[in-house]
Amino acid sequence: MFNIESVSEQHSEKIQAIIDSKTKPLGALGELESLAMQLAKIQFSTADYSAANALAKSAVKLTLTAPHLTIFAGDHGVARAGVSIASSDVTRQMVNNFARGGGAINAISRQLGWRLSIVDAGILEPVVSTQVKDQRLGKTTHAINQHEAMSSTQVDLGFAFAKAHIDELHSKGCNLVAFGEMGIGNTTIASAIMAAVMGVPAAETVGRGTGISAQALIKKQQVIEQALALHQDKLTDPKSILRCLGGFEVVQLTAAMLAAAEHKMLIVVDGFICSAAAMLAIQTNANVKDYMVFAHCSGEQGHEKMLQWLDVKPLLNLGLRLGEGTGAALALPIIQAAVSFFNDMASFSDAEVTNVT
């Protein structure tokens, strides 16, 4: 379903030469240089011979157009097991808050220049608003410790919905996407996915989410252990893991990342739940990782282990554990700074500065 090209190293030396020619010591801009390299390799493909010639003359520009952040929302049957501080009603309430512009992600997106969309991937009761896009796969998933979360048909429909959403963004010129999520109980889902993918016990993946009690933490771990035992023979591939353990929003997050990579968009991965989706996307097609920037390490205890397993370095570590895409949103100025130095910073020869590197 997704034809994703691996990012070529063909122009790496030319790109590095441009970065090294800037008026700075070698490597002095740290991770900004790595970001510029990643984006340049994505945007200057092997097939683009005009770009290759321009690279040789240091006459290329990186572009960021119409940055777009999508929040996918879904409800979870497992929430009834007491694994969260809130009931599933809060999912709808928060989606309504996003639609009215009152969430943290709304405030940050307005400040930083993200275009924002809200997708109902399957919450208990729809929010009637022109600001919410209907991509519902159902009202809620089944409790993962009792049944498969959803059907294969629902997984496939979620992939199709997400692909169409990204296709639409791409058609409007977007080349940078980020994703957030909302769904009471979804740290339980992400912890279960992490345990299934990494082959580790639930105790290594479970955290306090939005702030549950010690008793609820034990319950959360037990629920995940039950789910892993119930589905152990079926957790053989990404779609099966999504069917058995996933959430409607996680299905669409996973597919949206794959679709974005197919269009050679830069993908900004948010926190724990989005990283669980990223794990499944990478297992589906390893080339998708070339297009991913991991925004931050969240306060959820399993996230750091997840990032280590993925062998990625997050841009930020602010102790965030809100979700909604807030960490991904905060990465935009850093990405813009990487583009700006690559495009606009003078070279030693242009500035007539002695190159002592």
UniProtKB/TrEMBL annotation:
Reaction catalysed by this enzyme: 5,6-dimethylbenzimidazole + nicotinate beta-D-ribonucleotide = alpha-ribazole 5'-phosphate + nicotinate + H(+)
GO molecular function: nicotinate-nucleotide-dimethylbenzimidazole phosphoribosyltransferase activity
Name recorded for this polypeptide: Nicotinate-nucleotide--dimethylbenzimidazole phosphoribosyltransferase
Keywords: Cobalamin biosynthesis, Glycosyltransferase, Transferase
Entry annotated with the keyword Transferase: yes
Positions of the catalytic residues: 324
Enzyme class: transferase
UniProt keyword Repeat, yes or no: no
Pfam families assigned: DBI_PRT (PF02277)
Name of the coding gene: cobT
Described function: Catalyzes the synthesis of alpha-ribazole-5'-phosphate from nicotinate mononucleotide (NAMN) and 5,6-dimethylbenzimidazole (DMB).
